[in-house]
Design goal:
Elements: H1 2-12, H2 15-28, H3 32-49, H4 52-62, E1 76-82, E2 86-89, E3 94-97, H5 102-112, E4 116-122, H6 135-145, E5 153-156, H7 162-173, E6 180-185, H8 189-198, E7 204-208, H9 229-251
Parallel strand pairs: 1-4, 1-6, 4-5, 6-7
Antiparallel strand pairs: 2-3
Helix pairs in contact: 2-3, 4-9, 7-8
Length: 254
Amino acid sequence: MFFYLSKILDVALLPVLWIGGVLLAAAWTKERRRKQRRLVAGLILLALLTNPFLARVALNQWERPYRTAAALRQPYDYAIVLSGMASWDGRYERLTFGESGDRLMQALDLYRSGKVRKLVLSGGPGSLFNGDEREAVRLRDYLLRSGIPERDLLVESDSRNTRENAVFTARLLRSRSGSRLLVTSALHMRRAEGCFAKAGLAVSTWPTDRLTPPEARQFEPRHLFLPSAEALYQWEKLVHEVVGYGVYALVGYV
């Protein structure tokens, strides 16, 4: 039930729906003064949520900071890579990567450079309508075709959310000793880290795919003043994570 409610909540948390709702309310309001107030409120909300500077400030408070490879002073036995980065296109029989594909690319880089010894791929059916699809299995097959030996790949393919990522991965690794490095998006790391701690699996962290621009670009005009659809999307991602963390905290998952 929690899985299905979370998918419904995802839709309700879309900032574009908030803006649209306020503007629609203004359009339907007949009383002139109230109509003007709602129209102004909608325009202010639009201006705030499309401002890249405000989005960046908020993201910087939530995203976990990057680490350098030099900070990994000894190889980790396992890199736990959370799914939510790829989807299978059955029509063309192709695995398509989204923006979070950096999770896998960073984990692969650590593996090839000797910073981690094995990759643990965690992720099952994340869709309401395709419960048979297992993302971790697709990722394993992709890595096998890329030349990664099967002995260095472990798969957990039943989890549907971050809490289950942690619980099922802890079960998989319970009988395996060794150090563990958790690899997921910088925005998602706070919630993931909390879930793994709650599941009793000690991990170090390797955040990936930060949404905030590199420091050298942060003060370019387009990252300060110009309205941006990207900023609206960033608020969507941030609100999803903050509310998700809050819900997980309420039900005891973190």
